[in-house]
Design a protein that fits this description.
Length: 203
């Protein structure tokens, strides 16, 4: 990775907004009555940092955190062709590690102002089955043993398997979306084949 000064014009900075792969997935909301959950895509702070490194170069961007009135703020600066430009945002409290969670969240929110991760807002959420698990909490789950085998969970007898962590959930949703895309492609191909068949009745 180059450490030399890059001339970061507006056109070059547009690359910050390009999609990031691979995606992660997490549960955003639980609908207990319907026994379903809403799953949304996200990127983590390390992925955002890597995007800044790749586009800007490791010496041409910086970030700073500060606490104001109990809230954690982050600002990200880039050494552009017109000098240093800074953009900032505030983080939300994490349910696990308050200070670390707010720091990471404020960084990702500030990164969005530069376009990093903004593509996520154009993506659809995924609706999955949900089930009550450990500690009377609700989690995403799957009823398909075949799908579990496809992501490396060898439990073919399971009727319901709870996806307790984001890593397993991400593997499952990735497989699920790929399977949905393949099914849609097959349906489209069959419809096109039928539409292109000769109309024997007209002869």
């Amino acid at each position: 990775m180059s450490t030399e000064r890059k001339i970061l014009t507006h056109e070059k900075l547009l690359k910050l907004a390009e999609p990031i792969d691979p995606l992660n997935w997490k549960v955003q909301a639980i609908q207990k009555q319907a026994k379903t959950c809403v799953v949304v895509p996200y990127i983590d702070a390390r992925q955002a940092q890597q995007r800044f490194d790749d586009v800007c170069g490791i010496t041409n961007w910086a970030n700073e955190h500060k606490e104001e009135k109990g809230n954690m703020y982050c600002r990200i600066g880039i050494n552009t062709d017109v000098g240093w430009v800074w953009k900032s945002d505030v983080g939300k409290e994490s349910h696990i590690e308050k200070e670390k969670g707010e720091s990471s969240d404020s960084f990702k929110r500030a990164a969005v102002h530069w376009g990093v991760g903004r593509f996520l807002y154009d993506m659809d959420a995924v609706i999955l089955p949900a089930k009550e698990g450990k500690g009377q909490k609700w989690y995403a789950c799957t009823h398909s043993a075949k799908q579990l085998l496809a992501i490396g969970i060898n439990d073919p007898k399971a009727a319901d398997v709870i996806l307790y962590n984001n890593e397993t959930l991400t593997r499952y949703v990735t497989f699920y979306l790929e399977a949905e895309a393949k099914h849609a492609a097959r349906v489209k191909a069959e419809e096109e084949e039928i539409a292109n068949m000769p109309d024997y009745k007209s002869k």
